[in-house]
Amino acid sequence: MEGSKMEKFMPRFVGALILLFVVFMYVPFPGVPTAPRDSRSPLPEDSFILPERSHNLLRPFPAMLVRPDNPTSTAKVELGRLLFFDSILSGDNTISCAHCHHPDLGFSDNRGQSMGKGGDGIGRQRAGGAVLRRGSPTIWNAAYSHRQFWDGRALDLEDQAQNPIQDKNEMAQDSTELVRELKAIPRYVRLFTDVFGNADGSPVTFRNVTYAVAAFEQTILSQNSRFDQYARGDRTVLTSTERRGLNLFRSLKTRCFECHNFPTFANRDFKVVGVPDLDASEPDLGRGEITTEVYNRAFKVPTLRNIALTAPYMHNGIFSTLSEVIDFYSDGGGPGRGLHVPNVDDKIRKLNLTSREKIDLIAFLHTLTDESAKPELPPSVPSGLPLVPRLENQSPELAVYERLEESRLPSQITRSGRRLLVEAGQSIQDAINLAQSGDTVLVQLGTYHESLTLDVSGVTLLGVEESGQRPVLDGDHTLSDGLVGSASDVEIRRFAVRNYSSNGVMINGGRNVTFRDLYFYDTGLYGVYSVECVGVLIERCEVTKVRDAGIYAGQSKDVVVRGCIAYGNVTGIEIENCVNTVVKNNETYNNSGGILVFLLPNNPSKISRNCLVSNNLVHDNNHVNFADPTAIVSNVPPGTGILIMAADDVEVTDNEITGNNSYGIGVVSLEMVLEAEDGFDVDPAPERCWIHDNSYGGNGSDPHLFLVEQGFPGADLLWDLSGYDNSWDEPNAVAMPPILPGKSWSDIARRANWRLWKILEAVTG
Q: Does an H or E element contain 513, and which?
């Protein structure tokens, strides 16, 4: 009888358990999703694009945005050229495209606010017409831009061409009337027929007008400036002033290159920098007018090529000269000028540039001038209407700029075979300027007050070491960077680098780069900074007293950091948006955070993947965080041992992690630290990370207020419940939450564990 009752009871009991489990797993609970966000489908490998396309300063231009149905031909370009200069495109037959984009005026009009319908004259002398809100952006290299106009409302050149023709305040032409006028001109009919054929009726259509104009604009290319010649290896074309400006441009002091990167000197983004409005009562919201308020006051990042020809500057021409622009950024953009700009870009901050640095920057910007491919004005147009005349460029910038030719005798550098010998009192830069691929620049003991440029590939920069002493690069607390370069196959070894305001040594866009046996003290934001590189070795380096990361690798591939010591910094070692990285046999202590593996938004590389962190000593990282409040690392809580944020496929094993007051290892989402009203352009959750076989002691004893306020007690292991497929096999570690999924856990067990902690989190607040 008892057996019979049990036989009847068990199916009901099992059924009840299954029902309870289903209710637990899938019935909505206030504030708790029924399942974790599953983002295990990784982004494609080409999400990591930059290093594959970068090589030193000489970098290929991106592919032009050419419509498949609008292939370029010589005949189409010529038709587009004639239309571009023909005033028949305007309603009153007085305005051509060239009135606002004159080839002699940098393909702009030298006006802060362009003038359309009803105006007379060209450029700064134009008067009597409708004044537009914004200036005419240059057409130089516009074919490489993914959107057109300051607010990006046009997708491509074809889309852009139709807008000003039909705008009532610009050319004020009716598209139907334009087609009628063109059809009445036999030469145009022949030209359109030759280019587009007549299989579908008349080839003279408004669409074909815009296609021809776009084809012509695709040929307006500037790619042979003195900077380009320097990038191709001619080290004689830039003065020392211009080289210093190049260094400063790509320096972490200014971060100009992060928005105006090589080779286009533009990017795909729309940025808020706080440009003052000409009329405060009528603010220009820029891209925010056609998208969302997140982009209020955001404007397209323009190319800097031929920038000296296109003054005045900014979308509204509020600044007459480059000097005024540089002053604006040095002051900290709009906020630095006292304007309320709630969504200003995080790179906008006070630069506090010296007068010398401003001169150097402006000198470099003038090296971007190249009109060698400027098209000629046609002798006439088929309509017979008057052409715009040849003009003298009226850019105020040209009137105030004077190129500084610096003449000094170089130090007497001795060459011995493939070695260039630098004695104390000589200039290391003079030796680098003489170096060729395969050479070693051998630097004797001494103190060298220089900021070096290394753009020659295949060079070894080697310091002589005697009795533990090395040559010293000393910035005197006035120079920005110890060394900046974009060279490949280089090694920098055996130097002490100290007292720079921005960075110790920085290589951008190099391949096979080695930093070895270097000591950094008080070098600004970073000690070692490698970015957009492929193949980086950072070995036996020691870094202290920097305001961001002692050792940094960003947007790079195949990176090894080993045998290094970092202490007294905001962060010891930082790996950001990299692929295939090893961090091994290092010691980090007395930093705010020991080792960081990040995936951050708003970078060309959209993934951070495959990082091994092993056999490191990560202890007592409890230093107060003294980063700039606007920097992302300012959010790293003191007491952080190892922090994985949004990065995928990170393995942390065989490390000794002790005495970190907040936590030993944290695995968290971007959403824990950063806010993004419009979402992130990267996957914010860490995935497939594996934490195992580490040793712990004394972590989490005094967690930082930031964690306490979010309800996180101190622990060896911290997980914010983001990321679905992460694993922890650390039976002797104190964890938050107390039960973390292991490598062998099933999918259903992972989901149940996650659901439990999310419900408890919601209940406890």
A: strand 511-521
**pLDDT at residue 48 in the model:** 54
Task: Of 671, 553, 537, 681, give the one whose Cα is nearest residue 607.
Answer: 681
Name the pTM for this structure.
Answer: 0.85
The DSSP H or E segment spanning 241 is helix 240-249
For residue 295 the two structure tokens come to 């982009």
**301-310, 513-522, 566-575, 594-603: range with lowest mean pLDDT:** 594-603
pLDDT digits (tens, 9 = 90+) for 478-507: 999 999 999 999 999 999 999 999 999 999
The Cα 701–Cα 727 span in angstroms is 24
Say what the pLDDT of residue 286 is.
85
User: Judging by beta carbons within 10 Å of its beta carbon (0-12, 13-18, 19+), is residue 536 exposed, middle or buried?
Assistant: buried
Q: Are 611 and 578 in contact (CB under 8 A)?
A: yes
The answer to whether 168 and 92 are in contact (CB under 8 A) is no
Q: pLDDT digits over 425-450, tens only?
A: 999 999 999 999 999 999 999 999 99
Q: How far apart are CA 591 and CA 623, in angstroms?
A: 5
Same domain, 202 and 254: no
Domain membership flag for residue 541:
no
The answer to whether residues 136 and 171 belong to one domain is: yes
Total count of domains within the chain: 4
Gap between the Cα atoms of 596 and 600, Å rounded? 12
Tokens for 83?
Answer: 């239309």
**Does 745 lie in the same domain as 617?**
yes
For 454-496, the three-class secondary structure string (H helix, E strand, C coil) is ECCCCCEEEECCECCECCEEECCCCCCEEEEECCCCEEEEEEE
Task: Answer yes or no: is pLDDT of 678 > 60.
Answer: no
Q: Would you give the DSSP letter of residue 358?
A: H
| Kind plus residue range of the DSSP H or E element containing 51 | helix 50-53
What CA–CA distance (Å, rounded) separates 301 from 311?
16
List the domain range (segments joined by +) for residue 634.
557-765
pLDDT at 19: 46
Residue in the structure block whose two tokens are 């989901």: 751
User: Which residues are CB-neighbours of 223 under 8 A, at least 6 positions away?
Assistant: 61, 141, 263, 370, 373
Please give the Cα distance from 90 to 100 (Å, whole number). 12
Give residue 696's Cα distance to chain centre: 37
Asked whether residue 82 falls in the same domain as residue 11, the answer is: no
Q: Are residues 277 and 165 in the same domain?
A: no
Candidates 514, 441, 518; CA nearest to 482 is: 518
Indicate which CATH number applies to the domain containing 147. 1.10.760.10
CA distance 272 to 261: 17
Lowest mean pLDDT among 265-279, 506-520, 522-536, 556-570: 265-279
Rounded to whole angstroms, how far apart are CA atoms 600 and 258? 14
Query: Which residues lie across from 573 on neighbouring strands?
Result: 551, 595
Q: Tokens 């984009």 correspond to what residue?
A: 101
pLDDT for the residue 47: 55
